[in-house]
Amino acid sequence: MRPTLDLDLGFSTDIPPSRLPLVCCLVAFILTFFVTRTIVRYIRSQADSDTPRKWWQPRNISGGGGLHIHHVVIGVVLVMISGVAMVTLAVDGGVPEFTAASILFGIGAALVLDEFALILHLSDVYWAEDGRTSVDAVFVAVAVAGLLILGFSPLSFFDIDIWRSDQSVVARTIVVVVALLTLGLAVIVLLKGKVWTGLVGMFITPLLVVGAIRLSRPHAPWARWRYTNRPRKMHRALERERWLRRPVVQAKLWLQDAIAGMPKFPDDAKVDEQLDREIHAAPAPLDRGPVSEEVT
């Protein structure tokens, strides 16, 4: 008899029915984003080619008079249709119907967020530096959906069980106070420029405490208000930012080269140039007087 390998890793791959629509939405979102980026890059690479296009080759969508229709328009339509469908199914709909609507929503959301920078800047900055905002928005959406699928809740600080089981004024007051304190920490973290810490911290509360205690990023509003008259602290924030951002910038430059077809590890000069563009101190508030040395 041939031996069999039976491994129990301690977790189940079964998806609860309540999370199936969200899982399908996330998968549709990720696939649509990658397919869309691939198609757009292909169209751009063929823009200067005089070779006649075959029927199956991707091309820009144009309306009458040469109007270019961005794929964000299709995304908005799909999001509206799927949203109306899910609202209609909210009372009597089942898991299969919600799953189908969520897939449509994931596709539409990916098309919208892929051109989020266009909506934000009201300008076609898809291939410009500002166009990276779209990628950041996609990463945020994927992170939030992933945390929800893993069972984390953005209302983890708001203890629903206590709220339902204990209806006394004292218990509910404690829950509300803790919720407000947690939201206050989240605001401080965001004012310190730590968007990812604030986002994930809404699901994992201890991260908010860490983010609120640590130094602000040098370009953030908190640094503008608190560090511009404390040069030593601003210097520490700048040095810490360069140290933490360096591996991120190296990975980003390598990824850009890999997408271009020439993967190579960036040299220090190129990394330093990128860091100089990204890292800067917040300007002093207009009503501030001359900068004074920090008293230790």
TrEMBL record:
Transmembrane segments: 20-40, 69-91, 103-122, 137-157, 169-190, 196-216
Keywords: Membrane, Transmembrane, Transmembrane helix
Keyword Ribonucleoprotein applies: no
Top-level taxonomic group: Bacteria
Record keyword ATP-binding present: no
Name of the protein described by the UniProt record: Integral membrane protein
Natural source organism: Mycolicibacterium vanbaalenii (Mycobacterium vanbaalenii)
